[in-house]
Amino acid sequence: MPFSLQFNYPIFSTSCSHQLKLHNSIRNQPFKFLCTSPQSEEAAKDSSGYEKENGNGHVILVEKYRNGTSKRYIIDNDSEIKMFLEEHVPATTGSQHLEIPVTELSWLPKVIKDFVLPAGFPDTVTDDYLDYMLLQFPTNVTGWICHTLVTSSLLKAVGVGSFSGTSAAASAAASAAAIRWVSKDGIGAVGRFFIGGRFGNLFDDDPKQWRLYADFIGSAGSIFDLCTPLYPSYFLPLASLGNLAKAVARGLKDPSFRVIQNHFAIAGNLGDVAAKEEVWEVAAELVGLALGILALDTPGISKSYPTLALTWLSVRILHLWFRYQSLSVLQFNTINLKRARILVNSHVLHCTVPGIDECNRMESILLWQRFLRPRIIFEVSLEDMLDRGKYKSMQIKQLLNLYKEEKYFLVVNQQKPRDFEVFVSFKEGATSLSVLRSVWQTYWLYQNWGWSDNIFDRLEQSLVELKHRFPDLLQQLIEAGWDTNNLSLKVPKEMSIEELPAL
Q1: Three-state SS at 456
Q2: CA distance readout (Å), 60 to 79, 82, 174, 496
Q3: Which of 19, 128, 209, 237 is the most exposed place for a label (fewest CB within 10 A)?
């Protein structure tokens, strides 16, 4: 049964038997909260109806989080906003309270599921994905067991122990050497494991950046290897750190380059493109090995460690320069967030958009999104928007009305007047096009921020401009050859807002 409690204290936090915690960010205001049973969706509807019947206000927004938690925003008859946070309690029968979709591996903890499975699983992959990966796991385990055993044989072949004719101590030393060598590889594998699980959803958006970062990290790993002659007693930790860094680099390089290969294969010939790339890479490897051996045969390099280190440093800098140049010539016709910023800024200022070649040249490969201006922060709770935007409760209805035709909310952070910053949160049903619209509105506000002191006048005018000029942006993008049907602008999935109809 739903029930309600009324308190008249300015700030309060508590929890009830149904795991509900209350948040009240609108300072110095009384609040009201509900506790409802999470057994069914009907319970939530009943509690909402109870609020309305008693004339104490109604729910206008529900923020839903991936972990099942929801935050409800209630507006009362005095236009005061009150909030409470309701934790999700898994139901044993019936539908879930927040209509959380039931997916495969529901028994698996969310943290582990997010780490080992692609974002949006199972909707973002084919039906045979999970079966394939479950069989691949023991396949790879047995493969690495064989690798460990073969490594021991290789070490014995070069004189580290033998299968026969040696003492037990010599055999033990050979096995210990093999274990140390394989342990070095194992520590490196941890880096790939972490990168794949933690950052797997980043490579589609900006493969050029991550491919270049992979080379920087790989260079750092080579430095550890280069230091092993200076500290031979610390061979294992130095070699392990070097392997770890190079494994992290490989974890960044492989998925990034697969995206680049897919960009090349415009005729659906990804396998052929990958095979021919292998030919180019092996040819370069053979030439590089030959030149490296020739350098090692040079007395000045082979007998002088400083000369060897300086030669390595010079070649490595040249390698990084070539890598940057190769990535700079790539011409993606898809629109990620970096390219969207360039295109939108040009359209806001000049009513034109650069072509594919020009935009890719203007794109900064090294710079992170967080350092680009204006700064856009996605997935911000409406509670934080209200606090930092310095909005009053009576202005909330006006804010909701402004964005009734959009699939997002956007406000400007009023606490940083010198550093223009916007907060964006997306409603349920938002798409990549919604993200592009929010970016356009951000740049219009950024370029026209000083014309009025009234924040709502600015927001309203920006939305008017967005409505009138955004179709022209799309038309120009299509004419310039940009792929507007496959925008690389992902809608954040950690939080979404459900906007409920007003009474």
Answers
A1: helix
A2: 11, 10, 71, 14
A3: 128
Token couple for 21: 């915690």
Helix 168-199 with 129-157: angle, nearest 10 deg: 150
Give me 502's structure tokens: 């007003």
List all residues 6 or more positions away from 472 whose beta carbon is below 8 Å from its beta carbon.
Answer: 347, 351
Other CB atoms within a 10 A radius of the CB of residue 175 amount to: 15
Coil, strand or helix at 105: coil
Average pLDDT over residues 307-323: 89
Compute how many other C-beta atoms are within 10 angstroms of the C-beta atom of residue 239: 22
Which tens digits make up the pLDDT trace of 71-85?
888 877 666 677 777
Tens of pLDDT, residue by residue over 85-122, are 777 654 444 333 334 344 456 677 777 776 677 766 77
List Cα–Cα distances, 257 to 23, 274, 407, in angstroms.
45, 10, 33
DSSP codes, 198-218: HHTTSTTT-HHHHHHHHHHHH
Question: Per residue in 337-359, is it b (16+ CB within 10 Å) or e — as a string?
Answer: bbbbbbbbbbbbeeeebbebeeb
Rounded Cα distance, 70 and 406, in Å: 21
Packed helices 235-264 and 270-296: angle between N→C axes, nearest 10 degrees: 140
Per the CB < 8 A criterion, the answer to whether 138 and 132 are in contact is no
- Measured between alpha carbons, how far is 442 from 438 in angstroms, rounded to an integer? 6
Burial class (CB in 10 A: 0-12, 13-18, 19+), 230: exposed
**CA torsion, ordered 34, 38, 42, 44, to nearest 10 deg:** 30
The CA distance from 252 to 154, in Å, is 30
Helices marked H in 205-269 — which ranges?
A: 207-227, 235-264
How crowded is residue 419: how many other Cβ atoms within 10 Å of its Cβ? Answer: 10
* Sheet with strand 58-65: strands edge to edge: 20-21, 81-86, 70-75, 58-65, 495-499
- Note if the bond before 501 is cis, omega within 30 degrees: no
Q: Which residues contact 16 (CB under 8 A, 6 or more apart)?
A: 35
Give pLDDT, residue 465: 95
Burial class (CB in 10 A: 0-12, 13-18, 19+), 98: middle
Nearest-angstrom CA–CA distance, 150 and 159:
15
Question: To which residue do tokens 């938002």 refer?
Answer: 430
Reply yes or no on whether the pLDDT at 36 is more than 70.
no
Rounded distance between C-alpha atoms, residue 59 and residue 262, angstroms:
46
